[in-house]
Specification:
The structure holds two protein chains of two kinds. Chain A is of the alpha+beta class. Helices cover 45% and strands 12% of the residues of chain A. Chain A has three domains: 21-145, no CATH class; 174-288, no CATH class; 306-471, no CATH class. In chain A, strand 1 (47-53) and strand 2 (60-66) form a beta hairpin. In chain A, 38% of the residues are buried. Chain B has a single domain (11-349), classed as Amino acid/polyamine transporter I, CATH 1.20.1740. Classes of the chains: A alpha+beta, B mainly alpha.
Chain lengths: 516, 365
């Protein structure tokens, strides 16, 4: 279905080839086992090792965990207590293997218990916040989930705020995010498939989908791409996005990200895949198209008239965000005859004394705008306001008074910036701002002809672009008229009975009116 | 379970329905009312346009029928089964030459018009070069991408044409319509000839029907698609006559663009609409040229199968550019244009008849 690049754009040099020193089997001697794990981690001071006797017997055992990753109170109450107190007065088998089985069956009152055989199992378990229980004379260990690190509370997403809609957002913790997804979709067919990403830092990555909705080819392709990831560490889901996207030269984001569980769950119900990476509050939605990037969950929460108007407004915003400065340049510098006479006079009057051509003027202002945006995003919130004031003065008043730019140019650039912030997807807005500069140059050299050439170029690019095998311009072209009822115009919710046709979902019907 | 078939390199009937008008609507209509008006009286040109349209639709249907009866076979393959492989190769090669020269003509003409209406000071060579590079970029992408571009651009083109017609209603003068049916028979024939030339869009059917998924309905769709330009051209022609009158129309170089010039946009947010009209029309011309170039590539590629697509593109591109730059002035361009027009129509008719007759004689199914 899909061709994918095999080499990455920047070839990362790996520090060393993969070797597996830790696949060494555990040994029977407790001391030696403990020494092994200590040497492997070089005895950090947050490694807690507690050696004790199983009560009523001469069997030595030991618990090992990392303080802070594992919940110390839980370890004491449910593991050490059980081994030391619960065993009292009970028949403790002398045979070591029997004791091991007995502990497994009767004494360890933990809901999640695994058995580990290698040093690798042990170190991964410990570094994941599990507690490992050694028993002397046995070359196996218990690995008990005791995760208990500090987590951020579920808060309203910072990057995507809505007026109306749920207030919860994803957090950095994978498990919490999965819980959020489960709370949004109560469907037994909601599946989570787990992968380990990274050579050095093994991060959990979860692919969520609804088994009887998603098209199997999409799942297969996503799986294949995820398995091709070869990296030291994935600190943010952006790494995953860049590894699995179709075209790394394109300015357009082929995979959407969101902090909102409601948006993610809506995508799941449309037959898409949601990728959650441990440690990142941004989940990825794939495949995604241009049309879906222009939508916001709020379009559905408000009534259809509002939703439709908002979408039309957004497409208008996209047009302004891409074309306004270049159209201004083309009209002023190349086709002044096209501007209505009175306006042409006032533009000419306002440009009097401006030493630069419209192209230079527009570039100056657009670059200033980018600088302000970047500075505003990086600074602490308290200083950020200063930037707003300074920027407002620089970009607005002072530049005009100094005669560097014309007031109309200020209006054009300001309108352009506002329009680009009105788009719901930040990554798409940035893509538009990149394209904007291309258009400014084209308009500066060829006028309107340059703009149309650029427009056709962008179109050629996006019709050839795919997102996990789905053409980026669906459902505009390839055309799916059925899907147009939820594209720019949004039908009233009770009439949106079908899942998107272009996703070719297994279960086409979102609502079945007859059998309801 | 179905695979994601719509993402594959196959097209549907509906895309042929869109591709045919996208291919036909182009530079031709910009000057067509002039050439028709100059040989017919008053508003009689529509008769020529209609008859020419019917003839074109018949040719379209027969070409589509012929190539649809060999589903999933490229032109060179089914031509080889009908007339031997060497002859089929020659026929394909001639198609490639024809497509290349049409490409260069379009590239030249668009530069001439753009220079006239948009960029007075930029040399023609630069304008054509940018356009040709754009075409090359489009053709270097996937073929299905061209069809998607058709779908995305055709609505704009039809809308802007509709705007030109509707907003000119104020200026209509019904007196220009009469006297009716005063044209001599030879005038009609001449008009039919001119209109058939501007409708000529059968070439794409030879080559693109091979990638249609289920070509059963394709002849019907091609005919439906052909009806769009026929109707549009008749309307645009009548608008020209109603606004300018026959004598003015026959003296304007690009009457259709001039129509846009006198149009007033309500609210007065923009003047000189003809620039914007032509800018939008560039999309139509782009579609035509990109598909023509793609056919040249496809034809050459089918003869020399082991030469890569990009190589073929980079061989044809410079040639097309040089041919396009060769004519020295507008007169030479128009002579070149009518030569290519005649030859392509005659060639298509010739190939259709040849294949039809020999297929019947040799009973090739």
């Amino acid at each position: 279905m899909v061709k994918i690049r095999t080499n990455s754009f920047v070839n990362r040099k790996r520090t060393k080839e993969k070797e597996n020193p830790n696949l060494t089997k555990l040994v029977k001697n407790l001391e030696k086992n403990l020494k092994n794990i200590k040497t492997l981690l070089e005895e950090p001071n947050d490694l807690v090792i507690r050696k004790f006797n199983v009560r009523g017997s001469k069997h030595w055992c030991a618990t090992v965990y990392i303080d802070g990753l594992a919940d110390g109170k839980y370890v004491r109450d449910h593991i050490i207590d059980n081994l030391q107190l619960e065993t009292e007065g009970k028949q403790i088998p002398d045979d070591k293997q029997q004791l091991f089985d007995e502990l497994n069956k009767n004494f360890l009152s933990s809901s999640s218990l695994q058995i580990g055989y290698t040093l690798d199992d042990v170190s991964n378990g410990i570094l994941n916040g599990s507690t490992v229980i050694y028993l002397d004379g046995i070359d196996k260990v218990f690995i008990i989930k005791t995760q208990g690190w500090e987590k951020r509370d579920i808060k309203e997403p910072v990057t995507e705020s809505l007026i109306r809609g749920p207030r919860d957002g994803f957090v950095e913790d994978l498990r919490t995010n999965m819980v959020l997804m489960r709370r949004y979709i109560h469907d037994p067919n909601l599946r989570f498939k787990t992968y380990q990403i990274g050579r050095r830092s093994k991060k959990s990555l979860v692919v969520a989908y609804i088994a009887d909705v998603i098209h199997p080819d999409i799942l297969k392709e996503i799986t294949r791409r995820l398995e091709s990831i070869d990296t030291d560490d994935a600190p943010e889901s952006g790494f995953i996005e860049q590894w699995i996207e179709d075209n790394y030269l394109s300015p357009f984001p082929q995979i959407m990200n969101t902090e909102r569980p409601d948006k993610a769950s809506a995508a799941l119900l449309q037959g898409k895949v949601v990728i959650i990476l441990d440690g990142s509050p941004f989940v990825l939605i794939a495949p995604s198209t241009l049309g879906s990037a222009m939508q916001s969950p709020e379009d559905y929460y408000e009534r259809w008239t509002i939703g439709t108007l908002l979408r039309i407004l957004r497409y208008l915003g996209a047009f302004i965000a891409i074309f306004l400065p270049s159209l201004y340049i083309a009209l002023v510098a190349f086709h002044p005859g096209m501007i209505p006479t009175n306006l042409a006079f006032s533009i000419a009057a306002s440009r009097e004394g401006v030493p630069f051509t419209p192209l230079i003027e527009a570039l100056l202002m657009a670059v200033t705008m980018e600088l302000l945006r970047e500075a505003g995003a990086r600074l602490p919130k308290t200083i950020g306001q200063t930037i707003g004031i300074v920027g407002g003065l620089v970009i607005g008043d002072a530049a005009v008074q100094a005669g560097i730019v014309s007031p109309i140019m200020v209006i054009v650039v300001a309108l352009n910036a506002i329009a680009s912030f009105a788009l719901p997807a930040y990554s798409l807005a940035i893509a538009f701002r990149i394209i904007l500069f291309g258009f400014i140059f084209l308009a500066g050299t060829f006028g309107l002809y340059g703009i149309i050439i650029g427009y056709i170029m962008v179109n050629i690019h996006i019709v050839n672009l795919k997102s996990i095998g789905v053409p980026y311009t669906t459902p505009f072209a390839p055309t799916f008229f059925k899907d147009w009822e939820d594209l720019i115009f949004r039908k009233p919710v009770p009439q949106l009975t079908k899942r998107p046709e272009y996703m070719e979902t297994k279960d086409k019907q979102a609502v079945d009116k007859e059998n309801r | 379970m179905k695979r994601f078939e719509y993402a594959d390199e196959k097209i549907s009937d509906k895309q042929i329905l869109v591709a045919v008008p996208s291919f036909v609507i182009g530079i031709g209509i910009l000057s067509l009312p002039q050439s028709i008006a100059s040989i017919t009286m008053a508003s009689d040109g529509w008769v020529s346009l209609l008859i020419g349209g019917v003839i074109t639709i018949i040719i379209t249907w027969s070409v589509a029928k012929l190539s649809a009866s060999f589903p999933h076979q490229s032109f060179i393959n089914y031509a080889s089964t009908i007339v031997t492989r060497p002859i089929a190769s020659v026929l394909t090669f001639l198609f490639a030459i024809q497509a290349t020269s049409i490409t260069s003509l379009q590239v030249r003409q668009i530069a001439d018009i753009a220079k006239h209406y948009l960029l007075k000071e930029t040399p023609v060579e630069i304008i054509s070069l940018t356009f040709l590079l754009l075409i090359i970029y489009a053709v270097a992408g996937s073929r299905i991408g061209l069809f998607r571009l058709n779908t995305m651009f055709l609505p704009f083109v039809l809308i802007v044409a509709a705007i030109v017609i509707v907003f000119n209603i104020n200026w209509f003068d019904l007196a220009f319509l009469s006297p009716t049916f005063e044209t001599s028979f030879s005038g009609y024939i001449e008009g039919v000839k001119n209109s058939v030339l501007s409708y000529a869009g059968f070439t794409i059917l030879w080559f693109y029907i091979t990638i249609v998924k289920e070509p059963k309905q394709t002849p019907k769709m091609a005919v439906l698609g052909m009806c769009i330009p026929v109707v549009l051209y008749i309307f645009l022609y009548l608008t020209c006559i109603l606004v300018f009158g026959n004598s003015v129309t026959s003296n304007l170089q690009y009457p259709t663009i001039e129509l846009a010039k006198i149009l007033e946009i309500p609210g007065g947010i923009l003047e000189r609409f003809e620039s914007l009209f032509f800018v939008i029309w560039i999309m139509a011309i782009f579609n035509t040229t990109a598909m023509t170039f793609d056919i040249a590539v496809l034809a050459l590629h089918s003869i020399f199968a082991n030469v890569g697509k990009m190589k073929v593109i980079f061989i044809i591109g410079p040639i097309a550019y040089v041919i396009g730059m060769y004519p020295q002035d507008l007169v030479q361009v128009s002579i070149f244009g009518s030569f290519i027009g005649y030859s392509s129509v005659l060639y298509t008719v010739f190939v259709t008849l040849l294949l039809f007759v020999i297929a019947k004689i040799r009973r090739v199914k």
